[in-house]
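JOB MANIFEST
job_type = single_chain_structure
chain_count = 1
residues = 259
[input]
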Amino acid sequence: MECISRRLALAQLAAMALPLSAHAGDSARETGRLTARPRLGTPAEPSPPKGYSLLGPNKDDRTRDAVLYAPANFDALKPAPLLVFLHGAGENGALMAKTLREVAEARGFLLLAPTSRGLTWDLHRAPACPDTATVDAAMKAVFSATTIDPRHIALGGFSDGGSFAISLGLANGDLFSDVLAFSAGFFHAPMGFGRPRVFLSHGRRDRVIDFGMGRDISSRLRSAGYDVRFEPFDGDHDIPKAGLDIALNRFLGMSSSLP
């Protein structure tokens, strides 16, 4: 993964911020169920600019903002695929957006990168926790200002973000068509709605989260009846380009670019 300082990532963001409701996500925090849903018709809020936008504002710490990246061919009135991607421990949404910007631009999908409330995602209480409310609020802001294709909404993540994505994605499979988890360690899903497809990638030489943990997640989800694709690779704790391409091909299908 490309290493980019948080200061540089934030400095290059557009000045425009989409509004977040102060009370958005109260239900999500308590139940783990996201209330954000894509809307039909003309967006209720002004469309975001092409490139980067901060979702907030978070006046206390701008590094905790969610970041939206809209590719050059973005049109707020045309249905677009949306990938929500969660960062690893100690990172933030700005860094994640920078890491995935080029692939979002090349494939023409909207990229939303929320930031956890603490140094990492609340894996032990997921999906019923404040971090879920944060994701819910960010998604509501995107849905109110864009037109999203409801058939192509994915939740992905790396490391701790991958673990959180599995927990939250299975609890909201009626919203997410796909869950993409890279180098995840475990998940906690006391409830499941819908049947999202699951993509898992894990390095055989991972020195942070043992390869066997990723393999175990794959086996458990397959046993539970989920459509799982597990892609091991000969590497360490990372998002491999080949694995990312496979995951996105599966997610986007024929909708690999904006209409």
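[summary]
The first strand starts at residue 17 and ends at 19.
The first helix runs from residue 6 to 11.
exit_status = 0
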